[in-house]
Structure formats: structure tokens, C-alpha cells
């Protein structure tokens, strides 16, 4: 009877301490977990005037909070891809001499369709749509 | 005042302190502490040198805190201000950066000397584990401090580092979000890393250093088994030198030499600041991490995108994880259940790991 009562009291005390610890720790865990900040959805951005882009050149364009690589490969050919390397998140660049998209961090290479040519990237780059309205170049998400 | 009277006053002062602090027991302890003397005694100094460099880090870090501002808009400019406007600011920052690198180098030398001198053996397993945890913390200090100047290289190093954390199965994305303070590396990451660097890690490191030193005091300094055997064969024991003042003064000389090397490096090769981080710029050509992360960096570069059914990146991380666990557990697999020491296996493992780190770091630097 006595040991039962002791066991019960021990359980009650242990449970109480565990519960209070949980109550102390829960707000701490929640505090260090960063809050989700809603991002304004961007569907299309203006990249500038077409004549400002040299043929066989690339430029990083701000697409909301993400970088997008806009490439002008000929007079009429435009391409845009997510500039975030699918390997380890570095920002890629266009290599004018080799006509490829290159990540300097781990030497990953993509062709002008965004497909992986060599190196460690596991997936192709996401493609964006490029439209010309008059003289202005616009980049938008694929439908 | 006559010298006899002065001496008496000093003795009274010491007796007063002794009664309150128990100095006699400390004197007794120091008088009996010894250090083995043999051909490998030189390696014993690196633990102390690492501790000395950590102290330099704390002191120069406190000085840098007087001017540094941990926000994405001000961090780079504040470091630039330290380096160009504050008197000796360039030197203090350069010493902080060089000392960080030398501290990791010294800790790595200390670790390998423990392996090759067999100082991890029973009952020193916890000393080994606390030492490796300290090395992990030192790397954490390096990784978090690297971002603080908010320059291009540090920005991309942090992107890569936190993305590696994101690829850990299940908990990875949550860990990466916790580290970044959001979905991507930005101002929130800088604030967090600053908090880790100047508050969380120093607190943990101080506690672990105290534990590590306590364990070293508890078990004394280990002698290599072959030295013990050699002296045991002639019926003697390994010669010892008193810790105080003999070893202590030699250690002070080692610290002074380390300070000399540090001063020369900091003054002759001041640490550069580079360009300010731009989240909308491409990673520059020739980008690479600090030397102590070069081996995993180059390994990740070599692993193809897919190996069999696994993504190369995940395979690399799993490999590093297994390697780390295997190394941490060294004292436990170094002795068989029958109590036989696997000395050749330990030496082979140490040599292989050293060869891997040296070769891949060099290749990562050159290519």
C-alpha cells in the first residue's frame, strides 16, 4: 500500500516536472523556429530593354526574392531559367565562351535547355518564359 | 619597511587567502602533477596551444564586437570601417581570422597526436569524445564566423553549407530553416549566425573546455604504450617532469612562439574583405571554402549527380556522416572484446584519414 502510494506520488512528481519542462521548452522551440513570412507572388517581371542585352550574354534578373538567369543566345532567341543550382543552391552564370550555364561552386554545367550536361547537379534548372512586348523583355513563370 | 616585516605581511596575506580559498590543496595538486618525458613530449604542447589560440579568439572577438553590426545592410560596411578607419582595426580582424585558422590546425594536430600516441585508450574515452566535440564546435565557430563580414564568398559558402544540411533525410529541411532563419540565406541568417558565434558556441565551448581539462587532470597525461613497455622491461617507469614550473614554462614558450607566428601572419598577410554579398549575383569563378572544408568540398565536386539509386549529394553526406561516426567511435573499436589493442588498424585509419584530408584539400585548392 505504502509502495503503491510512493509509486503514485513519484509518478505524479515526475510527470509534473516533465510537463513543466515541456511547458518551458515549447515556447523556446517555437521561438527559434522562424515564422513563415508570406511572399508577394510574382508572376512576371520586366527585365529591361532588348537592346541592352548583348547577343550571347546572360544576366541575373530579380524574380521576387529569387534570381533568374536571362540569356540572349541570338537576335531572336531568349531563354530564362531559375539561377539556383539544383546541386547545393549556388547561383549559376552563363558562360559565353562555352555557351553553357555554369555553377562555379562545384563545376555543374547545364545546356541552354536547362538540362544537366556534367557535374554533380541532380536535376535540370526550372525554365521561365520570356516574352517581348515592343522593346521590353518580360520574364514570367511557366503556366 | 624592513624586508622581514614585509615578508611577514605577505605571509599573513597568503594565510588569509588560504583560509578562504583552500590554496594549500591547489598547491598540493600542482606540486604532484607531472608530465611524461620521452621522444613524443613535443606533441603534448598542441592542446595548450589550441587553448591559447581560443583565448586570443575570445579577446579579439570582444574587440571586434565594439564596432561590428550584425545586419545585412551594415555588416560589410562595419567590417570595412574596422579595417580602414579604426586604428589597428585591420590588425585585430586579421589576428582574429588567422588565429581561427591556426586554432583549427593546432586542434587537428592535437587530435592526430592523440591517435598516434594512443592517448585515447581506456580510461580516456570521454576525454577523446569531449575533444572531438570541441573540434566540432571550432568548425561551427569557423562556419558561423565566416558569414559575418557578409561578403560574396561567405554568402555562397553559407548557401552551400545550409543546403547540405537541407539534404539530410526527414529533419533536413527543418534544420536548414532553423539555421537560415527562413527559407533562404539572408539578413535573418546573418543575425542567427552572429548569435551562434558570440553567445551559443562560446557558452558551449567554455563548458566543454572545462570538462576536457577536468578529464585531463583526472587521468593525468598518457604515455605511449611502447614507451611504457620499454621502461617497464628495465623495471622502471617513464621519466616525468613536474608540471609546475617545468612544463608550464615550456608551454608558455610554445604560446609565445604561437603568438609570434600569429603576429607575423596577421601583419604580413592581412585578411582580405572581398566584395559585398549580392543575393542576385552569380557565384564567382574560383570560389572555394576555407582550407578545413576543402576536402569535403572537393569530394562533393567529384561525386556524379546520381550513383545507382541515390543522389550524389546525399551519398556524399551519408559517407561523411559514417566517416565521422567511425572516427568518433575510435576508442571503442580500437580494442577488441578480448582486450587486444588493434594498434595497426588505428595507425592505418589515422594515416588513411590524414592522406585523404591532405590530398583532397590540396586538389580542392589547386583545381
How many strand elements of chain A?
10
Order of helices and strands of chain B: HHEHHHHHHHHEHHEEHHH
Report the C-alpha radius of gyration of chain A, rounded: 27 Å
Oligomeric state of the chains present here: heterodimer
Note the main sheet of chain B: 2 strands, antiparallel
Topology readout:
The complex is a heterodimer of chains A (143) and B (367).
Chain A: H1 2-32, E1 44-49, E2 57-63, E3 66-72, E4 78-82, E5 93-95, E6 100-103, E7 108-110, E8 116-118, E9 127-133, E10 136-140
Antiparallel strand pairs in A: 1-10, 2-3, 3-4, 4-9, 5-6, 6-7, 7-8, 9-10
Chain B: H1 3-21, H2 23-32, E1 34-36, H3 45-65, H4 75-84, H5 89-116, H6 125-147, H7 152-166, H8 172-180, H9 187-219, H10 225-233, E2 240-242, H11 243-268, H12 294-302, E3 306-307, E4 310-311, H13 312-328, H14 330-333, H15 343-366
Antiparallel strand pairs in B: 1-2, 3-4
Outline the structure in words:
The complex is a heterodimer of chains A (143) and B (367). With 143 residues, chain A is an alpha+beta fold. Helix content of chain A is 22%, strand content 35%. The model of chain A has no long low-confidence stretch (mean pLDDT 91). Chain B has 367 residues and is mainly α. Chain B has 15 helices and four strands. Chain B is globular and about 75 Å long. Chain B starts with a helix and ends with a helix. Classes of the chains: A alpha+beta (143), B mainly alpha (367). Chain A binds chain B through residues 32-34, 37, 60, 62, 65, 67, 69, 83, 87-93, 103-107, 116, 119-122, and chain B through 156, 159-160, 162-164, 166, 174, 177-178, 180-182, 184, 188, 279-287, 297, 300-301, 303-306, 311-313.
Amino acid at each position: 500500500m505504502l509502495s503503491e502510494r510512493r509509486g503514485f506520488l513519484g509518478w505524479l512528481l515526475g510527470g509534473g516536472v516533465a510537463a513543466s519542462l515541456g511547458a518551458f521548452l515549447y515556447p523556446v522551440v517555437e521561438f527559434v523556429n522562424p515564422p513563415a513570412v508570406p511572399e508577394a507572388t510574382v508572376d512576371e517581371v520586366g527585365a529591361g530593354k532588348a537592346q541592352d542585352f548583348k547577343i550571347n550574354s546572360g544576366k541575373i534578373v530579380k524574380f521576387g526574392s529569387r534570381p533568374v538567369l536571362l540569356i540572349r543566345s541570338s537576335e531572336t532567341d531568349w531563354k530564362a531559367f531559375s539561377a539556383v543550382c539544383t546541386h547545393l543552391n549556388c547561383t549559376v552564370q552563363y558562360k559565353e565562351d562555352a555557351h553553357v550555364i555554369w555553377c562555379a561552386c562545384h563545376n555543374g554545367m547545364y545546356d541552354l535547355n536547362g538540362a544537366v550536361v556534367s557535374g554533380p547537379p541532380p536535376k535540370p534548372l526550372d525554365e521561365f518564359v520570356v516574352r517581348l512586348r515592343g522593346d521590353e523583355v518580360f520574364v514570367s513563370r511557366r503556366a | 619597511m624592513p624586508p622581514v616585516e614585509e615578508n611577514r605581511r605577505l605571509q599573513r596575506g597568503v594565510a588569509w587567502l588560504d583560509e578562504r580559498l583552500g590554496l594549500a590543496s591547489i598547491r598540493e595538486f600542482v606540486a604532484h602533477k607531472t608530465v611524461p618525458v620521452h621522444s613524443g613530449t613535443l606533441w603534448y604542447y598542441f592542446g595548450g596551444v589550441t587553448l591559447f589560440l581560443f583565448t586570443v579568439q575570445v579577446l579579439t572577438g570582444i574587440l571586434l564586437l565594439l564596432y561590428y553590426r550584425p545586419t545585412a545592410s551594415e555588416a560589410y560596411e562595419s567590417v570595412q570601417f574596422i579595417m580602414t578607419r579604426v586604428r589597428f582595426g585591420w590588425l585585430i580582424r586579421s589576428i582574429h581570422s588567422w588565429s581561427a585558422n591556426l586554432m583549427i590546425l593546432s586542434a587537428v594536430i592535437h587530435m592526430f597526436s592523440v591517435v598516434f600516441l594512443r592517448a585515447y585508450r581506456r580510461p580516456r574515452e570521454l576525454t577523446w569524445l569531449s575533444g572531438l566535440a570541441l573540434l566540432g564546435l571550432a568548425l561551427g565557430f569557423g562556419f558561423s564566423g565566416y558569414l559575418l563580414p557578409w561578403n560574396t564568398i561567405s554568402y555562397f559558402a553559407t548557401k552551400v553549407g545550409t543546403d547540405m544540411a537541407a539534404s539530410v533525410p526527414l529533419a533536413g529541411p527543418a534544420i536548414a530553416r532553423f539555421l537560415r532563419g527562413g527559407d533562404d540565406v539572408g539578413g535573418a541568417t546573418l543575425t542567427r549566425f552572429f548569435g551562434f558565434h558570440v553567445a551559443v558556441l562560446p557558452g558551449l565551448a567554455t563548458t566543454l573546455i572545462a570538462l576536457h581539462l577536468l578529464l585531463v587532470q583526472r587521468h593525468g597525461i598518457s604515455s605511449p604504450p611502447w614507451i611504457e613497455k620499454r621502461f617497464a622491461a628495465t623495471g622502471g617507469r617513464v621519466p616525468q617532469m613536474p608540471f609546475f614550473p617545468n612544463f608550464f614554462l615550456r608551454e608558455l614558450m610554445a604560446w609565445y612562439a604561437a603568438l609570434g607566428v600569429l603576429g607575423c601572419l596577421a601583419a604580413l598577410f592581412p585578411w582580405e574583405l572581398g566584395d559585398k554579398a549580392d543575393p542576385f549575383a552569380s557565384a564567382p569563378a574560383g570560389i572555394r571554402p576555407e582550407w578545413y572544408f576543402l576536402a569535403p568540398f572537393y569530394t562533393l565536386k567529384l561525386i556524379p549527380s546520381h550513383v545507382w539509386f541515390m543522389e550524389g549529394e546525399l551519398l556524399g553526406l551519408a559517407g561523411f556522416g559514417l566517416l565521422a561516426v567511425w572516427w568518433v567511435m575510435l576508442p571503442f573499436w580500437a580494442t577488441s572484446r578480448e582486450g587486444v589493442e588493434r594498434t595497426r588498424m588505428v595507425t592505418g585509419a589515422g594515416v588513411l584519414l590524414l592522406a585523404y584530408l591532405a590530398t583532397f584539400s590540396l586538389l580542392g585548392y589547386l583545381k
